[in-house]
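In practice, a research group might receive sequence data for several interacting partners and want a quick structural hypothesis before committing to experiments. The following worked case mirrors that situation: the sequences arrive first, and a predicted assembly follows.
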Amino acid sequence: MRSKNVVYLILILGLLSVYNLIFAQDAPEVSEKGKEVYEESCAHCHGTEGRGDGSAAENLLPQPRDFTRGLYKIRSTESGQLPTDQDLFDIITEGMPGSSMPGWETSLKADERWEVVAYIKTFYDGFKESETPPRQISLEGKIPYSEESIEIGKGLYTQFACFECHGQVGRGDGTSAPTLQDEWGFQSWPANLAQGWNFRGGNDIDDIYKRFIGGIAGSAMPMFEDPAFGLTIEQSIRYNELDNKVEMTEAEEEEYNQLDEKMGNAFEILDLMAEGSADEEQKQSYATAMKAFYEKSWHLANYVKSLSSEKRPEPAIGKNVLRSQYTEDDLPQIMDAAWDTLDSSYFPLVGQIIIEPRQFNPTIDSVNAKSFYNDTEVAFLFTWDDRTNNTEVKENEDTGKTFEDAIAIQFPVKIPKSPTAEKPYFLWGGRKAVYLWEWKASAADKITELTAKGINNAEEQEIQGDLQVEGKYTDGQYNLWIKRALKTDDKKDLQLEPGVFVPIAFSAWDGANGDVGTKRVISSWYSFVLEPVPSSRRFIYPPLVALLSFGLLVGLREFVRQRNT
Amino acid sequence: MKTKMLTCLTLLLACGFGLFVFADSHEKEEDMNKLVFPKAYKTTAVSNGGKISGVVKFDGEVPEMKKLEITKDKAVCGVTDKFDEALVVGEGNVLKNTIVYLMDISQGKDFDKEAKPELDQKNCRFNPHVQLIPVGTALTVLNNDKATHNVHIFGTSKNNTSVNKQQTKNRKKMRLTGAKGAEGPVEVKCDIHGWMKAWVAYVPHPYFAVTNEKGEFTLEDVPPGDYKLGYWHEACGTNNKEPVKVTVAAGGEVKQDFTLKLKEAK
Ligand code: HEC
Ligand code: HEC
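A structural hypothesis for the assembly, expressed as tokens:
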């Protein structure tokens, strides 16, 4: 009996292993440690089975990566290739700025990160099946960053049609931007190239170059082949020039046709290469054409690099506080060159996630501000990037409901006695009230003054019209100019005095991103100050000091001389 | 004792099977909107084959075709009106762009080797809307517009069908290398002109047809035998759950019409 049981046991075990062989033959060797790390730190977003459907995934845009399809955006490898382990390790270490994917440099040890790399690879068989390591993008022939290269890159930006999605000056406001989707069917905003710090894969020139050459798999951003393949940079520029001419002379026409034919041939060779059926001569001309393409791509990368500051600007605290500059003249109007003389203060914004409905996927990065004042008035210029100009509520079958773009600038009703004294609650006040200027894109020359004691508890002030305002939208950017008297008759308004630090905060709405009501982006309290004037004393003091010191010197010399004698 | 062992075994197998089915159920769900392909297909000479033909009709209230909003490049794209082609119903309620095919054929004729599949882009519209491409055959994409397009095929990367390539106005022709495996239909989009949509299916054998304006389809040179006849339609879905059984006699002709309803809204 016993022995029989043992036989059954063996049989069952045997069957189990057969079962394993049949049904689970490609069950990967699971790294226990990697699995543990994954389930603890990653699964709530990426899902236990790596399908990108964790419990926290629902509200996120872009969605956490579905690892079962083997599509990775940030790679050092050529188009259509899988990432290297190092690529995965780096992205896990650094995270993906501009998305909810956090960096794990501080919260996971390096060996834990390597283990989790091995583990996420088990979700996609392709990693196991590929016999050869993925082909890496060569960085050979890099062209140094220079004004000249940037200029060439700028021309190529147009020829490569980047503007279709990224807009004329690169703020992600191209005419195709509102309808872009990723391969999972979710809205996918083109990067704002003027905010390189939000690039998923970093904004070093090499990073940018790799994104063109390797593509951003799964996103709407296409893989590029040279639009003027087979032409040198000079020829490309010439071709474009001719292409844009309304009328060509006979000679020009001939030149154009020649270039066109050259390109046509090169494209044919490109296709043959992809199919693996090019002959030696064709391979040769392919190599020449590719060299020119890589060269063009480096210029393009240099141009993209030039559009953004290296890092996210320092926020408006400490020495970066918004300081309104005194001028004796009239205050500048919205587009006056005078504004260019000031540095702007940077106010980072984040999604409002405290009160329902929340904004988990903010699209407005920040507000920038500058200010001038004179003896009677103060003027502000607020600037923020928004990819779309939404001036009304719209129902759209494809892109969903969109709302109106707007901004609100917030001050306390009572200016605290000292910078450390308690301020009203930063979300539109509470027990202590706040005073607000609310502007909407539908009425660019109107601003509403509000008093609020909570995010859902705002009231229009009775007396309006103390403010002059002008708003403009160009190339993916709002400019809002506001002018006001330093002191108004309305007791409920803010009264301004040089040298006094005034708390300031912002709310902004990107209608295309579904922002409305409490769903918005917000800042915490910052402050601004009317920079105390170089009052007239400034002009008396220096000569006075000079005179005094001169006198002192003379006196001293006299003294020394007398002592010596 | 024997019975005990048998119970044990059956239980075990049942468990195993259960697991297997369970593990696979997720994929099955997605597959309901895809074509069904045979495990293997062998080409042989077919003599005295039969023919399957019919008409696909639409059952239900025919919604008015939605006119697409042309949001950019109006000079090029706006010269013709464009409509959402997800449901194209002709006179007599006939349904265009339905794929009708044999699900389980394991041998038969070879593809027409001369055929060169093309996807045209003109006035910012893809043509044809639904197309069959033999596995391994290149697709030539034409750009007949003075505008930049990008051809974005939403395949799976497993078969290397996922493509997203820009085609600027300079590039009149672009060949996309053939797919490695059967798949589809998968969506084709131009992201730059968000309204441009089409479908391609990478098929492993030639017994596939797409219905024309009159809703007609024909499958010819079918080796005699019993088959499952399937369909796929963008808006009406598939009959993967209950394919139609047909018997083709040597030299015979089978008539099989279909009447489709809109997929139930999810
Ligand atoms: C808060 C949610 C969240 C958590 C937690 C999270 N991720 Fe992510 N992850 C994301 C999102 C969202 C993306 C996609 C970002 C995008 O597509 O721009 C992503 C993308 C990725 C990618 C794809 C990179 C590429 O090149 O496409 C990898 C790899 C990754 N995550 C690994 C991990 C690992 C490993 C962990 C745990 C240690 C983890 N993630 C934890 C949200 C998360
Ligand atoms: C069809 C629309 C489209 C076109 C054309 C396009 N892009 Fe993009 N681009 C995108 C989208 C969408 C993203 C965001 C990808 C993501 O993270 O999912 C993006 C992201 C980027 C990024 C950020 C990469 C990162 O690490 O986050 C850079 C840089 C960029 N594009 C440069 C370019 C340049 C240069 C061109 C022209 C050669 C170009 N793009 C053309 C849609 C486009």
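Before designing any experiment, note the following. Residues 8-27 of chain B have pLDDT under 50 and may be disordered. The helical segments of chain B are 2-31, 74-77.
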